[in-house]
Amino acid sequence: MLKAERVSFRYSPNRPWILQGFSLSITPGERVGLYGPSGCGKTTFGRVLAGYLQPIGGKVELDGKPLPPKGYCPVQMIFQHPELAINPRWTIGKALYEAYQPPPSLLEALSLDLHWFERFPHELSNGELQRIAVARVLDPRTRYLIADEMTTMLDANTQAQLWQVLLDVAAQRQLGMLVISHDRPLLERVCTRIVDWAMEAQTT
Amino acid sequence: MLEVRSLSIHFHRYARGLRRTVLTPVVDLDLKVSAGEVVAVVGSSGSGKSLLAHAVLGILPSNAHIEGEIWYKGQLLTPERQAAMRGRRIALIPQSVSFLDPLMRVGAQVLRAAQLSGKNRHSAAAQRAIFQRYQLPLEVERWYPFQLSGGMARRTLVSMAVVGEAELILADEPTPGLHPEVVQETLNHLRQLADEQRGVVLITHDIQAALQVADQIAVFYAGTTVEIAPVTAFSGKGEGLLHPYTQALWRSLPQNEFIPLPGMQPSPQDLPQGCLFAPRCPLATAECTAERPTMRAIAQNQVRCIHAQG
Ligand code: SF4
Fold first, then answer.
1. What is the pLDDT of residue B46?
2. What CATH number corresponds to the domain at position B216?
3. Residue B209, in any domain of the structure
4. What distance in Å separates the CA atoms of residue A135 and residue A104, rounded to the nearest whole number?
5. ipTM
6. 3-state SS assignment for residue B176
7. Of chain B residues 151-180, which have a CB less than 8 A from chain A?
8. CA separation (Å) from B229 to A91, B215, B299?
């Protein structure tokens, strides 16, 4: 289980709190939707849960232990802007194969074009880059995924394609997911339960 | 008001080893916009939709090769006419706030836009009035762009586009990754502009946003408009939609069936023969790959498919 226990965060002591005492847990196979307007701390919470940010108060635990400080993190994150998450100086092939060899069936399910592999990120569209980002985080060592407005910038068909692949793999491997979005119909479609950020953040 | 006929845009570029490649991100595109109407052009991001706005404004890069015709109020647009109308009769609401000059006070930028649009004598009054209209507090005049909230920055961009007397507004992805309230507000502004008898083109990847304000939706695929349909056709199971791609797009929404169509759009470097959708079309026949289908009027729709029926 991935668990955030009363986590709080702010960037410095003279800045306002972005998170205050927020708790949430995700079990394997569960897909939790985090719903609410953007800019209200959901992204910060996602980053804390993935270990990108250290909480000031409270703790994040994976199966009762802190997240591993080095090596591959079993909690992975996918962002709204894939162009910011992929090293611009690496070819697509290098970025993709950096961590593991994705199986051909996955490449096919994501409609990845082998011609892209020698190109650089700026030569691909956002939709194409996001497919690469999804392939990357589906490393077999990943156990929890945090998808932060993953398909907000994509067209409806590409959105449905990427989710279909993620939902398949998540079901096979019993991945746990946190899905951050302002799109209620999307959360209702892909999640097993939905947490309303505004209400939760107030009551805690 | 605006009529785009068979617009194609090609770019020539030299790839590694002097291999010359031709990109065609816009292919035989047709579009019509009347005063009082919001026409949304919906297509995936990075697919060349923005080039349509740039072509209408006459601001494509110099290596672009253009075919087809753009008519504005019964006049064929030439580069000279475009230069004369840009910012005056035809205005752009750009995608990115990076369009604002970071070193210039916000009030001065809106004032400059007013002057450029020909409101020389009354530009200061026009700038004040537009600030009031879009609820930009007076002190914002003296701010620099970095001080604006996301919502204020959007309102500033809208103000700059409409401070003059532009009759045709081209909004290029005006809602990229914004707070839902800001998205709503921006869409409302576009609707109001159309209700004042201006023509509005909303270019977006977000079909849900388009459905909220548009009168007509033009579905953009692989560089062309495959179908133009009234917004009311986007309802139920999509019975009112006549092109196979539009039907698939409608089915793929999370509130509908969420079933995607497999495959990807063709690359502008490597367009298929005949119908651009044929490689993914479940209804494709041999005739489909013979030549590019033209737009046909069926019922209230315009459809680029030889097998479409009303
Ligand atoms: S023309 Fe043929 S391939 Fe193209 S959309 Fe129609 S049926 Fe499909």
1. 64
2. 3.40.50.300
3. yes
4. 11
5. 0.84
6. coil
7. 176-180
8. 41, 9, 10
On whether the CB atoms of residues A91 and A117 are closer than 8 A, the answer is yes
Whole-Å CA distances, A15 to A43, A55, A134? 17, 15, 34
Give residue B76's pLDDT band: very low, low, confident or very high (50, 70, 90): very high
Q: Determine the 3-state secondary structure of A75 from DSSP.
A: strand
Distance A19 CA to ligand 1 centre (A): 52
Size of interface A-B (CB pairs under 8 A): 81
Domain spans in chain A, listed from the N-terminal domain onward: 29-52+73-195
pLDDT band at B223 (very low <50, low <70, confident <90, very high): very high
Report phi then psi at B20, rounded to 5: -90, 130
Residue B262 domain-assigned (yes or no): yes
| Nearest C-alpha in A relative to B178 | A38
pLDDT digits (tens, 9 = 90+) for B135-159: 888 889 999 988 887 778 888 999 9
Give the C-alpha separation, B178 to A171, whole Å.
Answer: 31
Query: In the prediction, which pLDDT does B18 show?
Result: 63
The identity of residue A13, as a single letter, is P
> Atom of ligand 1 at shortest distance to CA of B288?
2
Does pLDDT of B182 surpass 80?
Answer: no
d(CA A59, CA A49): 9
Domain presence at residue B111: no
Count of structural domains within chain B: 1
Rounded to an integer, what distance in angstroms lies between the CA atom of residue B229 and that of residue B210? 12
Question: In the structure encoding, which two tokens stand for residue A55, read together?
Answer: 């909480």
B227 occurs within a structural domain: yes
What pLDDT is attached to residue A204? 45
Distance CA B305, CA B310 (A): 12
For domain A29-52+73-195, the question of CATH label 3.40.50.300 is answered with yes
User: Does the beta carbon of B284 sit less than 6 angstroms from any atom of ligand 1?
Assistant: yes
Q: Best mutation site among B42, B264, B280 for testing chain A: the one with the most A CBs within 10 Å? A: B264
What's the pTM?
A: 0.86
B282 in contact with A at a CB cutoff of 8 Å?
Answer: no
Report CB contact under 8 Å: A155, B249: yes
From B178, B179, B258, residue closest to A189, measured CB to CB:
B258
> Is the CB of B205 less than 8 angstroms away from the CB of A155?
yes
Write out the residue range of the structural domain in which residue B186 sits: 2-89+167-303
CB–CB of A125 and B45 under 8 A?
Answer: yes
Hey, what amino acid is at B184? Q
Beta carbon of B35 within 6 Å of any ligand 1 atom: no
Q: Which of B261, B271, B288, B292 to mutate to test the pocket of ligand 1 (most atoms within 8 A of CB)?
A: B288
A37 contacts chain B (CB < 8 A): yes
Q: How many CA atoms lie within 13 A of B130 on its CB side?
A: 31
Contact call for A127 and B180, based on CB within 8 A: no
Looking up tokens 């910060």 gives: A44
Hunting for tokens 């002057």 — which residue is that? B115
Nearest to A153 among B47, B205, B253 (CB): B205
Token pair listed for B284? 């494709």
